[in-house]
Amino acid sequence: MNCGRILWYNTRTMKNDCIFCAIAAGEIPSFKIYEDDTVLAYLDINPFTEGHTLVIPKAHTKGLVDTSDETLAAVVARVRKVAAHLKEALPCDGFNILQNNGPAAGQTVMHLHFHIVPRYGSQPIVFESRKGDMEHLKVLAARLAMG
Question: How do the domains of the chain map onto residue ranges?
Answer without folding.
Answer: 11-144
